[in-house]
Amino acid sequence: MSRRCKENRAKVDLERVYLLDEAVATLKGLRLAKFDETVEVAARLGVDPKKSDQMVRGAVSLPHGLGKVVRVIAFAEGDAADAAKAAGALEVGGEELAVKIEGGWTDFDIVIAHPAMMRVVGRLGRTLGPQGKMPSPKSGTVTPNVGTAVEEFMAGKVEFRVDSGGNVHVPVGKASFSADKLVENATAFLDYVVSLRPPTARGTYLRNISVSTTMSPGLKVEFAS
């Protein structure tokens, strides 16, 4: 363990459950890495991901963005393609774009698709699925409003889905953000997760929540929606 890690561990109580603003303030008081670390929030949900009616998935716009460049590509034609290009999409296309991805190009973060283009995108499931980049209506990445979706994701809209262990996690900004901005971003994410609670979920829904930076230990958080 490095000296910095030892110093940081001495400054936190890993058994304590912090209020969200206290946890963020504590993280910002740590000795951070030379690069601008990402702040992440993770939550373990009281759901059974094996049941289709308890799959928690969506996308939420963070009020202060992510503090990084998000590379968005779009599958669209005609006016929708023009709108995607105007919104700043890295690449816009159809069959030729699918072929490029099949050839091994995955240097992008988000894929937006017009519903009419799913006939092309559908075959990319084996490539995009394992990377969590396959477009989906539930996450807002399959939509007729392609230009708007490109703008939203480039501005800091984040996509998430519960994993096999019942966990969801997203970045909520950079360590250089003010504490208030990080708290507001984290609150927006957690509030949205609460709004997605499946009717069939029983017991405690938000079971465990933690917040951390790229290199820091995770701090347990209490959250009241």
Can you characterise this structure?
The protein is α/β, with parallel strands linked by helices. The protein has helices at residues 3-11, 20-28, 78-87, 95-102, 118-121, 125-128, 146-155, 179-195, and strands spanning 17-19, 38-45, 57-61, 72-75, 91-93, 110-113, 157-161, 167-174, 206-213, 219-222. Strand 4 (72-75), helix 3 (78-87) and strand 5 form a beta-alpha-beta unit. Helix 2 (20-28) crosses helix 8 and helix 3 runs parallel beside helix 7. The two termini are 36 Å apart.
In short, what is this structure?
This protein has 225 residues and is an alpha/beta fold.
Give the C-alpha Rg: 19 Å
The proportion of strand residues reads 15-25%
Mean pLDDT: 92
Measured as a percent range, the helix fraction is 25-40%
- Tally the helices: 8
Query: Structural class of the secondary structure composition?
Result: alpha/beta
Shape: globular
Distance between the termini: 36 Å
> For the largest beta sheet, what order do the strands appear in spatially?
1-10-9-2-8
* H and E order: HEHEEEHEHEHHHEEHEE
Largest sheet: 5 strands, mixed
Number of strands: 10
Oligomer: single chain
Q: Spans of 5+ residues with little confidence (pLDDT < 50)? A: none
List keywords for this structure.
225 residues, alpha/beta, five-stranded mixed beta sheet
